[in-house]
């Protein structure tokens, strides 16, 4: 690969591959899977923006030639060295200064003006999975998101493919964990034109793509949209639809990224949003695949095939609705499946009617440990429990095990163990529920005390007390006399 070509707008003392106070470069298994599905061996590819080095080398191993456009001079030198045996060039600078004509059968050549306007000119595929924002530097003004998309579309050959990423300004990350550093200036927070900001939300982004001329850019007008989890920089999964078991996969990805204190339980939040049909709109980021067809799930196979629901969700719904008949039907069947060789806790098992199958890796636990894991996760979720006495893992596990005819020895558990709900919102809900239960219990105690006081003031009680009280006195005196006689 040719050494880096400076095209203007390059950043000398800066790195997107090794950021000190900025987000890392885009990458992840879903990004690798998308490129593997879209790229062809004969393609000429432009990778624009901050992409992880392993992602770039994966592209170079699949196609004929690769050009790179990065804004960091340090990154340009490093990548040119890394891809020294690869056909292509590295361009260092801002997208608004990038004017390249890709000739048939040859490498890219730099031009001061013009573009990929000649017949057959341009790239077969342009990869911008990191988005448009990091394609310009601090000395670029008045170059908005739509203008960036238009510039990239202008570099495509007829029938070319564009792989574009975009962050969601109001995704699950805003609801799960507040960004306490949002008001602190970072190295990459230099001044920008107000109009340079990317559209916020999926519908505005889709409208902006149409405004940029996606349907007229020689890409056949096809646009596939993927919800990316847990983030654009670490794309573990990309889903064409966030529903059913795909929602569970997304929830797991978001929960794995937010293990500390959170405003809301990330796992439950994503599942609830998926159930309401909002999983795609609230995704942390999106991939737009323009002019190509790719699998609905990336990487393929991460979402289990077939029908069914997660057993944990089914049991939690039964708990919330106090459907104890359903619990007594499902729990024995699940325990029987475990006894027949099954190896999964309810959060790792799919229920399809009366059949069970594993969702993910096997878990080498005994029956009680599987039920205890569900009991703990149910309490962490802040889910309503129909039994006031089952407010700790031991009591809830014992009650669930009893439904399958299993009696738990008391010494296996710590009766004083308390499990806090995962998120602050769930904790507040639990506090409100416990306060309501305490208020009802206090009201019952006051009613009981009033009833007893009324009985004591009644005429029958006083007559009985007057009649029986002398008898009690005589009986006590006789006992004292008899004790003296015996001595």
Helix tally equals 14
Assign an overall shape: elongated
From the alpha-carbon coordinates, what is the Rg to the nearest angstrom?
Answer: 33 Å
List how many beta strands DSSP finds. 15
Major sheet: arrangement of strands: 1-4-3-2-7-8-11-9-10-12
Summarize the helix and strand pattern as letters: EHEHEHEEEEHEHHEEHHEEEHHEEHHHH
Chain-averaged pLDDT: 84
Structure description:
- This protein is elongated.
- About 5% of the residues have low confidence.
- The longest helix is centred in the last third of the chain and has 34 residues.
- A ten-stranded mixed beta sheet has the order 1-4-3-2-7-8-11-9-10-12. A three-stranded antiparallel beta sheet has the order 13-14-15.
- With about 475 residues, it is of the alpha/beta class.
- Helix 7 packs antiparallel against helix 8 and helix 11 crosses helix 12.
- It is built from 14 helices and 15 strands.
- The N and C termini lie far apart (about 115 Å).
């Amino acid at each position: 690969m040719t050494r880096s070509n400076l095209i203007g707008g390059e950043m000398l003392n800066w790195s997107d591959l090794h950021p000190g106070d900025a987000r890392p470069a885009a990458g992840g298994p879903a990004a690798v899977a998308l490129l593997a599905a879209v790229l062809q061996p004969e393609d000429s590819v432009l990778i624009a923006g901050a992409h992880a080095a392993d992602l770039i080398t994966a592209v170079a191993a699949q196609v004929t030639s690769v050009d790179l456009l990065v804004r960091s001079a340090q990154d340009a030198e490093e990548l040119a060295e890394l891809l020294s045996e690869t056909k292509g060039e590295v361009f260092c600078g801002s997208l608004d200064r990038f004017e390249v004509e890709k000739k048939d059968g040859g490498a890219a050549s730099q031009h001061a003006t013009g573009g990929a306007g000649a017949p057959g000119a341009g790239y077969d595929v342009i990869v911008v999975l990191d988005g448009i924002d990091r394609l310009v530097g601090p000395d670029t003004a008045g170059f908005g998101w739509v203008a960036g998309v238009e510039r990239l579309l202008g570099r495509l050959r007829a029938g070319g493919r564009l792989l574009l990423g975009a962050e969601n300004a109001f995704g699950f990350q805003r609801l799960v964990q507040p960004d306490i550093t949002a008001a602190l200036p970072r190295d990459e927070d230099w001044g920008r034109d107000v109009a340079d900001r990317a559209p916020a939300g999926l519908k505005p982004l889709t409208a902006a793509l149409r405004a940029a001329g996606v349907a007229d850019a020689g890409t056949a007008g096809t646009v596939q949209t993927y919800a990316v989890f847990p983030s654009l920089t670490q794309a573990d999964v990309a889903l064409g639809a966030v529903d059913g078991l795909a929602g569970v996969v997304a929830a797991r990805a978001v929960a794995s990224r937010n293990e500390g204190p959170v405003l809301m339980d990330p796992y439950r939040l994503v599942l609830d949003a998926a159930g309401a049909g909002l999983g795609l709109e609230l995704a942390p980021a999106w991939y737009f695949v323009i002019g190509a067809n790719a699998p609905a799930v990336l990487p393929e196979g991460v979402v289990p095939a077939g029908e069914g629901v997660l057993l944990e969700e089914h049991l939690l719904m039964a708990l919330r609705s106090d459907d104890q008949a359903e619990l007594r039907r499902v729990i024995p069947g699940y325990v029987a499946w475990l006894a027949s060789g099954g190896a999964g806790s309810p959060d790792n098992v799919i229920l399809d009617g009366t059949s069970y199958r594993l969702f993910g890796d096997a878990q080498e636990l005994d029956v009680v440990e599987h039920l205890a894991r569900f009991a703990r996760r149910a309490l962490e979720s802040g889910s309503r429990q129909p039994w006031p006495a089952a407010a700790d893992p031991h009591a809830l596990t014992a009650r669930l095990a009893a439904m399958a005819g299993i009696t738990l020895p008391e010494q296996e558990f710590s009766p004083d163990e308390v499990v806090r709900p995962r998120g602050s919102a769930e904790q507040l809900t639990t506090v409100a529920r416990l306060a309501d239960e305490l208020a009802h219990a206090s009201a019952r105690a006051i009613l009981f005390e009033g009833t007893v006081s009324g009985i004591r003031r009644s005429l029958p009680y006083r007559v009985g007390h007057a009649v029986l009280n002398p008898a009690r006195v005589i009986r006590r005196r006789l006992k004292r006399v008899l004790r003296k006689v015996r001595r």
